[in-house]
Amino acid sequence: MVAAQKINKDLQEERDKVTFVIEEFAKWFYGGPRQLHEKRFLENYILSDPDLQSDVDPSYLSHKEKYEEAIRRVVVILKRIDKLQAEGHKIDNVHKKVLGSMIVSNVFKEGSPLTTHIGMFGQALASLGTPEQQAEWLDRALRCRIWGTYVQTELGHGTFVRGLEVTSTYDPKTKEFVINSPTTTSYKWWPGGLAHTVNHVVVFAQLYSLGKHHGIQPFIVQVRDFETHKPMKGIIIGEIGTKVGFNTVNNGFLAFDNVRIPLKNMLMRNSQVLENGEFIKSQSPVLNYGVMTEVRVDIVNGMAQHLAKAVTIAMRYSTVRRQSPIDPKLPEPKIIEHVTQQMKIFPAIAKVIAIKVAADKLYNLYDEITAEVKSGNLSRLPDLHALSCCLKVVTTNEVAQSVQICRLACGGHGFLNSSGFHDIYGNVVAAQHYEGENTVLLLQTARYLIKAWSQVLQGKKLTPSVEYLSAYKSGQLGKWKGSPNGILTALQAATAGQIALAYKHLEERKKTSSVEVATSQTGIELAKASELHCQVFLLSSLMWSVNRAAKYFSKALGEVFQDILHIYAYDLALRNLGSMLQFVSFSSADLEQLQMDFEASLKKFKNNSIGVVDGFDIPDSVLGSTLGAYDGDVYERLLSAAKKSPLNQEDVNKSFDLYLKPFIKSNL
Amino acid sequence: MVAAQKINKDLQEERDKVTFVIEEFAKWFYGGPRQLHEKRFLENYILSDPDLQSDVDPSYLSHKEKYEEAIRRVVVILKRIDKLQAEGHKIDNVHKKVLGSMIVSNVFKEGSPLTTHIGMFGQALASLGTPEQQAEWLDRALRCRIWGTYVQTELGHGTFVRGLEVTSTYDPKTKEFVINSPTTTSYKWWPGGLAHTVNHVVVFAQLYSLGKHHGIQPFIVQVRDFETHKPMKGIIIGEIGTKVGFNTVNNGFLAFDNVRIPLKNMLMRNSQVLENGEFIKSQSPVLNYGVMTEVRVDIVNGMAQHLAKAVTIAMRYSTVRRQSPIDPKLPEPKIIEHVTQQMKIFPAIAKVIAIKVAADKLYNLYDEITAEVKSGNLSRLPDLHALSCCLKVVTTNEVAQSVQICRLACGGHGFLNSSGFHDIYGNVVAAQHYEGENTVLLLQTARYLIKAWSQVLQGKKLTPSVEYLSAYKSGQLGKWKGSPNGILTALQAATAGQIALAYKHLEERKKTSSVEVATSQTGIELAKASELHCQVFLLSSLMWSVNRAAKYFSKALGEVFQDILHIYAYDLALRNLGSMLQFVSFSSADLEQLQMDFEASLKKFKNNSIGVVDGFDIPDSVLGSTLGAYDGDVYERLLSAAKKSPLNQEDVNKSFDLYLKPFIKSNL
Predict the structure, then answer these.
(1) What is the distance in angstroms between the Cα of B28 and the nearest Cα belonging to chain A?
(2) Is the dihedral of CA B395, B398, B404, B405 positive or negative?
(3) Acyl-CoA oxidase C-alpha1 domain spans which residues (chains A, B) (predicted)?
(4) Which of A83, A134, B176, B258 could form a disulfide with A138 if both were Cys (CB 3.0 to 4.6 A apart)?
């Protein structure tokens, strides 16, 4: 048991001002009392393992040592999960709930070598494999008897999947596929755990059979021996090197030198190759979208959680830190008293909630549409695809920016790894880079929006997420009102106006160019329209959720949600003023009022701000920050973390005698 | 000699389109033919040392090994400089030109433990020490006989210098100062090289003499023994731990346990303490601004150079990388053909030039005003201070953002350390954190602007950098014209309008609050006004320089400068549309035209874009990037860098037998 903590008095003073019940907020944030309880149980159960307590932060280790320590920790956790199950605790999907969640985000600050195994390998087998194939591999994967990863990207091709070069050529004589990497650019590159950890991969390759090309298909390949872990014959494998973050994810490269695998190793739930080499095309090519879309929804949800960590750190530090007198007759204030500090942190708190709500809506939509697809109705898939693409882009970009704002809000100390910001940043930035290049994804959403606009022009009815385009067309949007609802309307008008403008330029260009060239040349405006569309979705989701909270929660909490909505909406409006002013009329007085309203909303929220971050319910063992710990003992923690540096274990480093002293002596 | 390189054919194709003489541009960029020649000579001379060639990138080392390797490299370079001097090459200030410049930016990717010695210790001695003190320490410092650093910031206080806690109490009996750190928060924290490298410090402490407090004063203290390098008596010293970047800078902490230093160790060029303890106040307290201002100007200049590296990498990679067909009948294009890629990279190229020009102007201003100050005229110091504050903020923020845009523009490969982006980012971000908290600096500039505005209201004449405020007041600004000049005018109007609005709110608040409280509450608007003022300075400096180039350079180069100015101005206008629309009238057609003009400027510049980054003249040995090397051999370099990872030197990592295999066996 942990002894009662001594809380920094400034922090306690702010906590005493909170007007709502934090536990009520936490239950909402985690989806209900049962989910919150389960999260806390798992955190305690897993993280209390003595083998996970370590005195030297991994950031001091060499790259190789970091990997070895990560594997050690993976196995400690897997054993802990075994123990939990042996003790009779029944928790569905427990491996994903632990290893695929924030619970281990401080154990694996730079990611885990099993993340892709947990998050994608099983899902790929489940969605792409036949029942027989699942019987052979899926259960062993879920029990961690085999470890795998999802291998698609190559050195020369990422987002443009059709350009992949690895080939899989069927040999009907031996009933095998021959998998081959013909060039340097065809080296598979990036999959997590691939380098030294997994022994199986689901790999995507260009299929050739009986001399014909049949597009990209998935295959399962064993890459390392069960007993020795040595690479199998023809397998060239290794890691891709150090990175901004993710240094314990063990991202790898893989090349095939005419590797033979049996016919049964093509994942044939959709398309099939028969023994004689005949190819049978999938009935429903869209089903392949499943894994990618689910991963994108997971990314959006993860962004809310990463940002929750960052704002918890910045908020608590800003309450403990005193600096720069406002009134020269008074002591230096808590820096959160400075409005310029509130301006940095409060909108980031609001963003956590907006993104969490959007992720929830996207999960629901995903479940609904997946069920529709199973019953043969594919009509809403494009809507889901369009939303998941732009949300992945906008949330990763905005969270990357907000994490940096939080870090800068902590002054010099934010630059220290012990603050925790850099590891959060590394994880967030990784998501900007993976699962589709952000601009390409925006242009995919834009294609959907342009199609929707052309339907508006034809007088057709649209799905709810783009209904506002019709309203714009019929002149129902455009008059400025300074409420969140008015901001939503103005943002919808700006988005619709931007789409209409891009559409016009596209049509003009189509007179002299092909549709593809015209689309490419209109890319800047199209990408902008997609970003705005995403902001409309985020704000409208948040409004929906806040209105709902007013019905279901206590009055005090309902008011906090209102405050959060106001901050979010005003900040969004001020950041998108250029776009809005282009399509909506404002007076000077309107603009002055908007700024005033924003500042008033910060002031109104201030007394509850510490309560909300406490309600994100991130224990110190998960937060892993000298600046953000619950007790606010910032300075002692900074000093104590520094003193643990291996360099500080010796008064004099050997480089003095080896290099410095001889030089000084020679230079007298 | 390096053999003639084989150049990637796509890259060569683009180089063949360049219309201007790259060497002419390079001469301008480095300040003249002599400076360019000297830079190239030093690069070759220093970096060709065989002891600087190493096969394992430092990012694979442990934190401790990184430091030891950095010290080894420091000494290799110092010996190389000795050799150069012994061979009779006469280069002024050669230590700073090598160790304080980009030449070593790939040798010390995360900074050098001597940066602060080179950049601040000598300057502090020169500007704060008496001639006798300089005779004792300065020459030894310049010859690297003693090594020092500049010690000001504490755990509990950074930007608010008056809040520092370390005390220096004069003891007239022994004619010594007693330096003491009374609290945890008084630990000195951050100085480069402090932890294990330097043996001297210039430390700032609260002076007490004869029971009276005399503010912050500088003292020189020896912290380590010459022979053993052990900490001196009463010195508690160590490093502050791992960071986002700067991991080889050896940033340290320092506490004093009643350390005694002789009277002569107070740096007494300004204020003095006599033997009897009498305090003589400095005639000119502003002289202390010198070191800090010079460091800020160096930061601005450094930002241009860091961004030059980032755009060189992104531009060359975008020329080599082919991805995503535009016209489905044609092969995948170079990604620089996509306008959305041009939108990311070309404005960043323009920003390098705008920031470099602004730094030049600031250096000139610094020299002029320093000369004026020496002759007793302090009138323009506030102007210099205001500009150096906001330029430090805006250039570090903008370059941090642009480096990330460049990194994202390189897709997944940008996330690899071998791309070079992360080390650039770490160095840039460090500058966002150090030398003054960015918002506090903006508010210092704002104080100057508010004062200027009140002078306008009184009908007074202003200095050139804020003259546009008078023009705004008399209604001469505000009509939109789509040229760079028109954009400058609109931006000036937006800035003046923002200042006037902040002034109005400030005055209103002063009716019910003290001026300090009112100022604090108006912080958000004040900070925004400062940022805009800085953008006015950047754009007007660039315009001045481009107009000058038209007179002095070839027609072809003059046109390139014009193209760069257009891209810079249009991009700036689009990014600040919200501010401009608030104070300047635009029609819908104006806005549509602005977007069109921006896109046209990208298209016009495209054929010269590779020429400009080649003209930044950054050799591969300085660039240190797999993606940005001159020959464009991107994929082989990525693979070859990966293969050098220590993890890839073994087929099977020991963690398999230690952890993975026993777990799998136990789990059958």
Answers:
(1) 32
(2) negative
(3) 289-450
(4) A134
Which chain B residue is nearest to residue A591, measuring alpha carbons? B582
Residue A28 lies in a domain: no
A245 shares a domain with A346: no
Is B132 buried (19+), middle (13-18) or exposed (0-12) by CB count in 10 A?
Answer: exposed
Can you say whether the dihedral through the CA atoms of A399, A404, A405, A406 is positive or negative?
A: positive
Q: Which residue in chain A has the smallest CA separation from B644?
A: A241
Q: Do B233 and B357 reside in the same domain of the chain?
A: no
pLDDT in tens, B60-69: 999 999 999 9
CA distance B627 to B645: 17
Selection from B197, B506, B168, B570 nearest residue B350 by Cα: B570
- Residues ≥6 apart with Cβ < 8 Å to A12: none
Please report the number of interchain residue pairs, chain A to chain B, with beta-carbon separation below 8 angstroms: 368
- What distance in Å separates the CA atoms of residue A597 and residue A256, rounded to the nearest whole number? 61
Residues B448 and B493 in one domain: yes
Whole-structure pTM over 0.95, yes or no?
A: yes
Q: Do A414 and B433 touch (CB under 8 A)?
A: yes
> Residue A18 in 3-state DSSP?
coil
Q: Can you name the residues that pair with B253 across neighbouring β-strands?
A: B189, B238
Summarised one tens digit per residue, pLDDT across range A470-498 is 999 999 886 899 999 999 999 999 999 99
What 3-state class would DSSP assign to B492?
helix
Same domain, A468 and A551: yes
Q: Which of B158, B523, B643 sits opposite A340 (nearest CB)?
A: B523
The sign of the dihedral angle between the CA atoms of A268, A270, A271, A275 is positive
Chain A hits for B577, Cβ within 8 Å:
577-579, 581-582
The 8 Å CB, 24+ separation contacts for A321-328 are A321/A410, A321/A411, A321/A634, A322/A10, A323/A411, A323/B157, A323/B158, A323/B159, A323/B160, A323/B163, A324/B159, A324/B160, A324/B163, A324/B440, A325/B160, A325/B516, A326/B516, A326/B517, A326/B520, A327/B514, A327/B516, A327/B517, A328/B516
Interface mutation target, options B162, B183, B242, chain A, most CBs of A under 10 Å: B242
Cα separation, A468 vs B618, in Å, equals 51
The tally of domains found in chain B comes to 3
- To the query of whether residue B275 is one of the catalytic residues in this protein, the response is no
ipTM of model: 0.97
Interface test with B, best of A64, A581, A657 (most B CBs within 10 A): A64
Binding residues of A for FAD: 153, 192
How far apart (Å, rounded) are the C-alpha atoms in residues B49 and A495?
58
Q: What's the CA gap between B194 and B151, in Å, rounded? A: 8
Cβ separation of B68 and A655 shorter than 8 Å? Answer: yes
The CATH number assigned to the domain holding A519 equals 1.20.140.10
Q: Which residue of B has its CA nearest to A655?
A: B68
